[in-house]
């Protein structure tokens, strides 16, 4: 049984496969956002930290799997990835990364006005206007992909153990 058949058997529609034009538009947005992030000076590792933190908040197993591997390829360490969910309680992230993570969280939970204001104030102190915009776009796009994968129940398959 392939992935689409498995999703259908579980009562789910892979919306990326069912509506490929919409998914391709989202993918094109993600490509544009990656370019904006690079132009703003955000390195790939920081973008992946944002992607992972958003995916942690949303509980998207598929995106956590994909972006953990991408973060490792971008040079992230196992230690930093392991403590990302509790980043505020560590000393392993610098002020710029902390500001980006707080802004990503505020973008993911916009109904919390106090969190949003605190995060934006931190971002203003540590990030340029271009970086703030890029982080918000990265978080917005990741939130959209999380919803695609969560609602489609994209599977996470076991990787070979070393």
Quick summary:
The protein is mainly alpha-helical and 162 residues long.
Low-confidence stretches: none
Gap between N and C termini, in Å? 27 Å
Number of helices: 9
Strand content: under 5%
Q: How much helical structure, as a percent, in the residues?
A: over 70%
- Characterize the overall form: globular
| Overall radius of gyration | 16 Å
User: Helix/strand/pairing class, anyone?
Assistant: mainly alpha
Taking the sheet with the most strands, its summary is: none
List SSEs in N-to-C order. Answer: HHHHHHHHH
> Average pLDDT across residues?
94
Number of strands: 0
Give a description of the structure:
The protein has 162 residues and is mainly alpha-helical. Helices cover 73% and strands 0% of the residues. It is built from 9 helices and no strands. It is globular. The two termini are 27 Å apart.
Helix-strand layout with pairing:
Blueprint lengths: L2 H7 L5 H4 L1 H21 L3 H15 L2 H13 L4 H6 L11 H14 L4 H14 L2 H24 L10
Helix pairs in contact: 3-9, 4-5, 4-7, 4-9, 7-8, 7-9
Key words describing this protein structure:
162 residues, mainly alpha, 73% helix, globular
